[in-house]
Amino acid sequence: MNIEAEINEQHTILCQFNYATIYFMGISSLEQQHRDLLTKAKRIVVKVGTRILVDKNGKPNHSSITAITEQLAKLKKSGHEVLLVTSGAVGAGMQILGCKKRPTAIQDLQMAAAIGQVSLMNYYTACFAKWHCKIGQVLLTHADLKSRERHLNVRNTILNLLQHGIIPVINENDVVSCDEIKIGDNDVLSALVTTLIDADLLIILTTPNGLRKPLANGKTERVGYLPKIDKAALAFVSNSKDQFSTGGMGSKLQAAGIAALTGALVVIASGKDHSVIKKVLQGAEVGTLIGNPKAANVLCHRKRWIAFFHKPQGKLIIDQGAAHALLEEGKSLLPIGVREAEGKFSAGTVVNIFAPTGENIGCGLIEYSSKEMQQIKGKPSAEIAKTLGYKNSDTVIHRDNLVLFE
After folding, report:
1. CATH 2.30.130.10 residue ranges for the chain
2. What is the predicted pLDDT for the residue at 27?
3. Do 22 and 225 meet the contact criterion of CB atoms below 8 Å apart?
4. Alpha-carbon gap, residue 172 to 139, rounded angstroms
5. Residue 406: which pLDDT band, with cuts at 50, 70 and 90?
6. From CA 192, how far away is CA 68, in angstroms rounded?
7. Is 216 helix (H, G, I), strand (E, B) or coil?
8. 95 and 182 in contact (C-beta within 8 Å)?
9. How many whole angstroms separate alpha carbon 83 and alpha carbon 72?
10. Mind giving me the DSSP string for 87-145?
11. CATH number for the domain running over 312-404
12. To the nearest 5 percent, what fractions of the chain are helix, strand and coil?
């Protein structure tokens, strides 16, 4: 699976940063400053990958699952709000069905997920029960998060579970997911959940202890801290996967970039360390820490919904004057500033906005369809009604429905 094809184009653009500036700013002091903030995190999302939950043969890794549930239970009992985003349903189903390789046919994947989800939740229920913790299952698709009404319902349900002392166990609903409603993978899902419920911290547990950077001597070293994610950091990635998992380090970095832009801190660390969650909350130097809450341009919930919970259906290429109006003056996008409209989209969907330089500078909910945009692009707003015979709005994308990637 091509990870970048699963993640919306704007997620990458939103995470632009000059990687070299980390060293100029003094990485040790910045890292320590932000690791100290980890000790104050109250609402915590923990994402656990399939490789941690199952062994190389696809069977449940009892020691790992027990260690994770124990750490989460202790966090909850110490006053934290805890959410678990878990993979493993398909892997568990494969084990029950006796599959040696991950199915490729969608109906076989859905069957494995249906069988495995029951097994996985039964196991979690038993493990958490040992610590007198109640859990609630939340299965999501992209359609649940894209629809504004359902989006808010999901948020309210999760917050209500937390308020009643119940640990939400969240997974993508692979039983019904298809390309049109698929989120992508659980790394992305964990970032979206973090964004949805204003979590302070996202911990992504995987096999390596964070991102590793290649050195000139052919060896690698752990990257301790990144304020944001950029293309240079993504270039370090080697997306090795196995038959039981779908994500890789690239997916985890992309997810971290989403969560960090909403003010959360993210730690990518090794779930093989059975005390890793405790260490992260103590501010210990484990994994790769990502984020800079003080510098984050935190979006309101509506603009988060636009930026992160939609899959853009097309793109607009605008002229330099329009780019300046959007970026420097806080204006809406008018049809006169649009050079080209690409893709097939309807009014009310999200499209990406590109400057004449080719840079993706934003996205937004568009007022007109692709067919209508071909007729009104480059024209003054006063000519919309004359051209189309009607007018939805003077703007192509109103500033209230616009998110800028900076």
Report:
1. 312-404
2. 47
3. yes
4. 5
5. low
6. 21
7. coil
8. no
9. 8
10. --HHHHHHHHHT-SS---SHHHHHHHHHHHHHHHHHHHHHHHHTTT--EEEEEE-HHHH
11. 2.30.130.10
12. 40, 20, 40
SS3 254: helix
Confidence of residue 284 (pLDDT cuts 50, 70, 90): very high
Averaged over 235-242, what is the pLDDT?
62
> What are 290's two structure tokens?
């990502």
Distance CA 46, CA 262 (A): 17
Q: Please name which of 233, 262, 227, 265 lies closest in space to residue 26, comparing C-alpha atoms.
A: 227
Asked if 277 and 266 count as a contact pair (C-beta separation under 8 A), the reply is: no
- The C-alpha atoms of residue 160 and residue 157 are separated, in whole angstroms, by 5
Mapped onto helix, strand or coil, the DSSP state of residue 400 is helix
- d(CA 278, CA 271) in angstroms, rounded, equals 11
DSSP structural state of residue 199 = -
Closest to 253 (Cα-Cα) out of 278, 231, 270: 231
Strand-by-strand arrangement of the 43-48 sheet:
135-140, 167-172, 81-86, 43-48, 201-206, 265-270, 288-290, 225-226
Query: In which residue ranges of the chain is CATH 3.40.1160.10 found?
Result: 3-299
d(CA 99, CA 94): 5
C-alpha–C-alpha distance, residues 250 and 232, integer Å: 12
pLDDT value of position 176: 80
pLDDT given at position 98: 86
Query: Stretch 40-59: mean pLDDT, rounded?
Result: 85
For 108-112, the CB contacts below 8 A with 24+ separation are 109/174, 110/174, 110/175, 110/176, 110/177
Tell me how far apart the alpha carbons of residues 71 and 54 are, in angstroms, rounded to a whole number.
18
Q: Supply the pLDDT for residue 11.
A: 45
CATH superfamily of domain region 3-299: Acetylglutamate kinase-like (3.40.1160.10)
CA 134 to chain centre: 26
Please, which pLDDT band fits residue 2 given cuts at 50, 70 and 90? very low
Contacts of 180 (CB under 8 A, 6+ apart): 142, 143
> Encoding tokens for residue 103?
């199915």
